[in-house]
Amino acid sequence: MLAERKCSCKYFDEIKIPCGHAMIAADGVGVPYNTLCGHWYKTTSWRETYEGDINPDGDPRNVEIPEEVSSMILYPPNTKRQSRRRRKTHIPSTGEIQVPKKKLVLNKCGRCR
Fold first, then answer.
1. What are all long-range contacts of 80-88, with beta carbons under 8 Å and residues at least 24 apart?
2. Which of 22, 28, 38, 100 is the most buried (most CB within 10 A)?
3. In this structure, are residues 44 and 20 in contact, taking their beta carbons and an 8 Å threshold?
4. Count of CB atoms situated within 10 Å of the CB of 32
5. 11: domain range?
6. What does the alpha-carbon distance between residue 57 and residue 32 come to, in Å, rounded to a whole number?
């Protein structure tokens, strides 16, 4: 049901992004996919959302804090030190691993080289 933007799988109904069923049906009828998406996914809606200035309400120092909250003493959370020994070597991440260069292997005799 492309006109109502509904599908029996309910994915298209709830998220307003065409599911695979709706895309196949749209291909059969010749309807472009971008007309099936919800209006809030389109670039114009995003630009209108952030078009104006975003300003804070006021100075955070002027906010009234209740007496019970301001009189509370907060300590850091209780944590346990790990029971194992700390690692002394650095474990490189994926980008830091250097790939070894391939060595040129020549076919040589094991006896006389």
1. none
2. 22
3. no
4. 8
5. 2-54
6. 43
Residue type, 83: S
Q: Is 106 inside a domain boundary?
A: no
- Residue 80 falls within a domain, yes or no? no
pTM: 0.41
The two tokens of residue 77 are 């959370």
C-beta contacts of 28-31 below 8 A and 24+ residues apart: 29/2, 31/2
- Total domains in the fold of the chain: 1
Tens-digit pLDDT string for the chain (113 aa): 777 778 888 887 788 888 888 888 888 888 888 888 888 888 888 888 888 877 777 777 888 888 998 899 989 888 887 777 777 787 777 777 777 777 766 777 777 77
Nearest partner of 35 among 22, 49, 46, judged by Cα: 22
60 domain-assigned: no
Of the CA atoms within 13 Å of residue 38, those in its CB half-sphere come to 12
**CA angle, residues 72, 73, 79, in degrees to nearest 5:** 130
